[in-house]
Amino acid sequence: MSNQDERRWALRWLGAPVERLSSERRRELIEAAAARGKLSSRGARARLRENWLPIVQTAAAAALAWLVANTVFGHANPVFAPIAAIVSLGAT
Length: 92
Hints:
Structural class: mainly alpha
Low-confidence stretches: none
Radius of gyration: 26 Å
Number of domains: 1
Order of helices and strands: HHH
Shape: elongated
Number of strands: 0
Strand content: under 5%
Number of helices: 3
């Protein structure tokens, strides 16, 4: 596809002309995206560090609810038990 065809396609489908970015502008945008990605991963690690205990408690409660429903009550596929455990822990 030629440059002229690309411009026509962009004007037709996007409703606005598209201009080529200079290599310097592309580099700036890539560096900015990389910086946002680093901040995002730092934030995710910080949230995980703060919330690891409730996550583990919820997983343990769901597993225990499934185990009790399966072994004690004999349900073949106890789907509702872990869901009820997760919802009840989320409500407290």
